[in-house]
# Entry
Amino acid sequence: MALATPTSQKPGRSHRWAPVTTRASGETLSLAIHTLHGAQPGPTLGLFSTSHGDEAFTVQVIKAVLDRVDPAKLRGTIRALPVGNPVAFESFTRSTGQGMNTDKTNLNRVFPGKSTGWLTEQIAHVISEEFVPGLDALIDFHCGNSETAINYVLLENDPSEVGRKSVELSKLCGSDLLYTAPTPEQTGTLTQYAKSLGIPSVIAQWGGNVTNPAAYVDRCFVGIRNVLIHLGMLEGQIVLPPQQTMLSGARTLLAPRHGGLFVPELGFDRLCDTVPAGTVLGRVYSPHTFELLEELTAPYDQTVVIMLRGTLSRVNPGDYAYILCNGATAEPIVNGK
Ligand SMILES: [Zn+2]
# Structure
């Protein structure tokens, strides 16, 4: 792999606070960057979470990795930033501090940021300057919030060498479902910035309000361990499910057009299920008049539910409700025993 960590490092775990700015309250806004130094030199793997402030589940995944990997057996370094946007986390909102006196911007659209920019751009700048440099690979975690759950790895159709390596690492994460977007759907994401620097990057969309959180974290850990083994950072056997499924083509981000009371037909146990076209997934009622405002239905003959809103909740117009893929595009990835 490319960059080796210095041979003089001491094995062990530590963290530091990277300052961003002074808030009007007088507090210093800082980002906690963790380091797990291995006993021997080797590559550096970056783990990043919570660029969207309402995505808390994957903080636990990062904690599990730092708790479970023994630095004495590690070659190289794990560098982790569990809360990428602390201001959004504070308000538990996707963007920076909705309802607070900030710029309300989506951190994962402004990389590499700007030191003299809006608050969110300043956060991105510090991540770009202090977290990203020197990484040999990156996993950017996203997840559902308290009302949603998600389970797939998102790939970008990128024929370059760094794109090919990103696909390789993404498969090793061991998700049952992967989805390749036909064209990059966003700009200014952390992984796009990292890839522009030649750093292979994974977008792991893992968890949220899942039915068995502890077992789910265990599965995530197995996938990250696979990546560590592949990078030569740990000894061991790569463990993959017998078969994974690659989805492609267009996908549907199904969001309610109306706000109101959201009543799901599919609970969280139906995550990753395939349902026929026309299946009612959930309904939005007016909680004031009880009028049915809309029904959200499956669009494809084989609709694969890769993200869902599985609990009764208040929804606003345009909130995430479902991400749906076309099962007709499914291609099996068969892994050897
Ligand atoms: Zn996200």
In short: Residues 250-334 form a domain with the OB fold (Dihydrolipoamide Acetyltransferase, E2P) fold (CATH 2.40.50.100). The two ends are 27 Å apart (CA to CA).
